[in-house]
Amino acid sequence: MAAIQLFNQFPCKARVTTSSNSKSLSKIPITVPMSSIIHRPVFSTGGGIAVSRGDFRVRATDAEDEWGTEAGERGSAALSVADEAIEAVEETERLKRSLADSFYGIDRGLNTSSETRAEIGDLITQLESKNPTPAPTEALFLLNGKWILAYTSFVNLFPLLSRGILPLVKVDEISQTIDSDNFTVQNSVRFAGPLGTNSISTNAKFEIRSPKRVQIKFEQGVIGTPQLTDSIEIPDNVEVLGQKIDLNPIRGLLTSVQDTASSVARSISSQPPLKFSLPGDKAESWLLTTYLDKDIRISRGDGGSIFVLIKEGSPLLNP
Fold it and tell me: Where in the cell is it found (predicted)?
């Protein structure tokens, strides 16, 4: 019955036979609703026309195969591909968040255990395998902007600070700013202390050498003008070479120099930065970008070091 109901939807052409007295109708096809044929296999009209069910040719099955089954399979395949793409994006986002979370409390990799470093290395490898930008140097719009260093395997990046030899001073931010229009790179380190902040940076030019690699030539170093605070903030204690030193006894000495400090701060902060040239034998390096999207950039240096940078403004900078 299901087949009958299906066929009822299609009008069909019937070949009819006539009596000898109706020759004028013998070559005229008559369109008859399928429902009429199903319920009345053989019938006659007043003109003596007999309709035979065996004369019909219906290809509903072929049409269904061509436009139904095949189209359905193509639709299912398209949905499957879309689902896989969505899952891939979700997996990449999960890896990015896991990697960013693994940086918490490790001071950009300077204070990292071998176990944690191995876990981070595994996450980096997984993320590199899902790189959505296989030719980063051909997507300069993604490289452009300020990137904050979140992790590096180069543990000697700041050897003095990593050994705690400079008390009261910490690295506040390490960044790299890329200007893809002018092919320039600026690496900057910002220090923070009780008296204010200061920065040291290097300016460089870069050349594209391959779809993933750039050659960097450093041209100039810059010691920024200290931005001193009007008031001096001293912590209760400071750790020097593993020992805590109580600073409360000197707080009284600092009270008498508050006004002087404010005057000196305004005077020094108005001075221009100090610029110096860099020696030629140490002024070149190359960088290989192994992962790049709008949030994260992973690069490997010529010494085998890994650098993970997060784009300024990215939600991944927020724990």
Answer: Plastid, Chloroplast
Helix (H, G, I), strand (E, B) or coil at 225: coil
Q: Give the integer Cα–Cα distance in Å for 296 and 118.
A: 19
Nearest 10 degrees: Cα torsion 58, 59, 63, 65: 130
Q: Quick count: other Cβ atoms within 10 Å of Cβ 61?
A: 11
Residue 246 amino acid letter:
D
Gap between the terminal Cα atoms of the chain: 65
Q: Which helix (H) or strand (E) holds 205?
A: strand 196-208
Q: CA–CA separation, 296 vs 218, rounded Å?
A: 24
Q: Are 18 and 26 in contact (CB under 8 A)?
A: yes
CA 3 → CA 7, 55, 64, distances in Å?
6, 18, 13
What are 137's two structure tokens? 């140097």
Tens-place pLDDT, residues 270-299: 778 888 888 766 678 888 999 999 999 999
**Token pair in block for residue 157:** 């990046």
Of 44, 17, 39, 43, nearest to 29 by C-alpha is 17
State the Cα–Cα distance between residues 85 and 76, nearest whole angstrom: 14
- The full length of the chain comes to 319
Task: Give every CB contact of residue 44 below 8 A, 6+ residues apart in sequence.
Answer: 50
Tens-place pLDDT, residues 86-128: 988 999 999 999 999 999 988 898 888 889 999 999 999 999 9
